[in-house]
Design goal:
It is a single chain. The chain is an alpha+beta fold. 45% of the residues lie in helices and 15% in strands. The strands form three sheets. A six-stranded mixed β-sheet has the order 4-11-12-7-8-5. The longest helix has 33 residues, at 489-521. The radius of gyration is 35 Å and the shape is elongated.
């Protein structure tokens, strides 16, 4: 038989809460990396936070597609700083870069638009497995090399693939096969750096800065023999220090995006006198700024998908001149020092439109189209916030936040203990249980969704202490009202709970809606405040229903704990008795 309204079996509720706590801490200690610490924001552990605001040239709102593409490209650059825990997240039309640690100043210069360019491929690709001592052999080029082609627009007839292109598996990596191979050389690398190199981002890790300079000296040399040796030495499995640091006016040795092949590439365009134009033939003079649009469509001449590419007027002219001078030669699409695709030019392409084919799947074709369309983003980024916090200052902030929370808890404890006595002790116990479940949830959220606890989040928890304590006070005051009416502690608890429950649910619903609205419309660290406030409000209901109410019900059934001197309800009982006595002593009014 179910108990009367307001009466519960406390043991079942407390057991449910214990199971929840055990399950949460089992996930904390036995999943992921086993770390039992919440993920801290840079304002608590130190680091750099940069907020980039994206705008179109006409002042319009950027599309989700372009913002997501920008986030992915900038994230690649952030990870190139050589630090762990770096993140790039979308916040409306903003991109927020967070790089923890002491060597994170370089993040402030990473908002530059990722650079897309077209480079002529020199010779044949070299397999990524070719080591420093291995020389590439034209006769042993693997037949599994992916194939691709750059064709005229649909109005033109597609030419057959060049004889030098092997026919192997479909082109998941989106590369094409060149037709000639320059003879390799074992000449030692030149120690002379290129004459034109972009500066390394200030604040970059000194070790990484040395790697960038060394990579430039080899992989952007103007000596072809040095380039060939650098191609053999390049390890595609390691992070590329040249990401975002290569110079389009110089040659480049680069890997493809899948790390399967290495390429020697000509400059895009140059006025550098150290670059001998005879060594590199014609230049494309094409960058992502010359592209008008790129769309993935069905291949009307066979199975699979193709990418239709259109250039702006100047870009179409450059493309026509380049393709006319390089028929049956490959051209590489290079994005931040990585070869995205390297199709063969099958015929001169005039008119500003071209088609790239290569037995692509829909996903591969869409990816290539997005790279071509957004590689050089049609967005301008302005830095709306750039915050650097040292680890020492972050530790100071965290200590201040913890001290503020401890003071708030102590004041609540003192007030509840002196005003409610036993009920105040139950309040303190409930807050301790609430803190235990909040801590576990913070650890898991940091692991699962990357939530970081910052100063604003700590402020949300401090405010939530008041909301949680307010739920207890509503319940306890209802109990006092029932005692004033002459009921015992035991009989007052179920009636008070029925009346207090509605008020608690209504108050927490208002707090949660306010936190949710603030989270949706806020930006930056205010979101952290709203998130922790809303999360604490939900967990407050869990604690009140599964801990506080059962504990009070258990205390009311104990003869020892129900004593007025312990429960703190003696004053309410005396007030009620005194009020009833006054009503009984009041003389009756006689009828006329």
């Amino acid at each position: 038989m179910a108990p009367p309204a307001g009466q519960i079996r406390p043991g079942k509720y407390l057991a449910s809460f214990v199971l929840i706590v055990v399950a949460l801490y089992a996930l904390v200690f036995f999943t992921g990396n086993g770390s039992a610490k919440p993920k801290l924001g840079i304002d608590l552990q130190g680091g750099t936070l940069v907020t980039l605001t994206a705008r179109l040239p006409d002042g319009g709102k950027p599309s989700d597609e372009s913002l997501n593409r920008a986030r992915g490209l900038i994230e690649t650059r952030v990870n190139g700083l050589g630090v762990s825990g770096a993140e790039v997240v979308r916040d409306g039309t903003n991109l927020v870069i967070t790089v923890p640690g002491a060597d994170s100043e370089g993040a402030k210069s990473l908002g530059q638009t990722a650079f897309l360019a077209f480079r002529k491929v020199l010779g044949q690709p070299i397999p990524a497995s070719a080591g420093q001592q291995q020389q590439p052999q034209p006769s042993t080029q693997p037949s599994t090399q992916p194939s691709g082609s750059a064709n005229p627009s649909a109005s033109q007839t597609a030419a057959p693939p060049s004889s030098g292109a092997p026919q192997g598996r479909p082109a998941p990596a989106l590369q094409g096969q060149p037709t000639t191979t320059p003879p390799p050389s074992s000449a030692p690398p030149s120690s002379a750096p290129p004459s034109s190199t972009p500066p390394v981002a200030p604040g970059t890790d000194p070790k990484l800065a040395q790697e960038i300079q060394a990579a430039k000296m080899l992989r952007q040399s103007t000596d072809q023999q040095v380039l060939q040796q650098a191609a053999l030495m390049l390890d595609c499995s390691k992070p590329d220090p040249l990401i975002g640091n290569d110079d389009i006016k110089l040659p480049l040795v680069a890997c493809d995006q899948k790390g399967e092949y290495k390429y020697i590439l000509a400059p895009v365009d140059t006025d550098d006198p150290s670059v001998k134009k005879d060594d590199f033939s014609t230049f494309t003079r094409l960058t992502g700024q010359d592209i008008d649009n790129a769309v993935a469509t069905n291949n009307r001449q066979g199975a699979g998908y193709v990418v239709n590419l259109s250039f702006k007027s100047d870009g179409g002219s450059k493309w026509g001149k380049f393709t006319s001078a390089n028929v049956n030669q490959p051209v590489a699409v290079v994005l931040d020092s990585k070869v995205v695709s390297a199709p063969n030019i099958q015929t001169a392409i005039l008119g500003g439109s071209t088609e790239i084919s290569g037995k692509f799947t829909l996903k591969e074709a869409e990816n290539l189209a997005n790279v071509l369309k957004y590689g050089s983003l049609p967005l301008s980024f302005s830095t709306s916030e750039a915050l650097t916090v040292t680890p020492t200052l972050g530790l100071t902030y965290m200590k201040a936040g913890l001290i503020a929370g401890a003071i708030g808890l102590a004041l609540v404890f003192v007030y509840c203990f002196f005003y409610y006595r036993l009920l105040g002790i139950l309040t303190i116990a409930s807050l301790v249980f609430s803190a235990s479940i909040v801590y576990a949830v913070l650890v898991l959220l940091g692991r699962w969704i990357g939530f970081t606890l910052d100063l604003a989040g700590i402020a949300g928890f401090i405010v939530a202490i008041g909301i949680t304590a307010d739920s207890f006070i509503v319940f306890f005051e209802r109990i006092k009202d029932e005692v004033r009416e002459g009921r015992t502690f035991r009989s007052a608890v179920p009636r008070a709970w029925v009346r207090a429950r509605r008020t608690i649910l209504s108050a927490d619903a208002v707090s949660f809606i306010a936190a949710a609205v603030l989270y949706l419309i806020a930006v930056g660290q205010v979101k952290g405040f709203a998130f922790t406030l809303g999360m604490s409000t939900v967990l407050d209901l869990v604690v009140v229903f599964l801990v506080t109410h059962p504990l009070v019900a258990m205390a009311s059934k104990s003869k020892f704990l129900s004593k007025p001197s312990l429960s703190g309800l003696g004053g309410a009982a005396r007030e009620g008795a005194s009020h009833r006595a006054k009503l009984q002593a009041k003389p009756a009014v006689k009828e006329a």
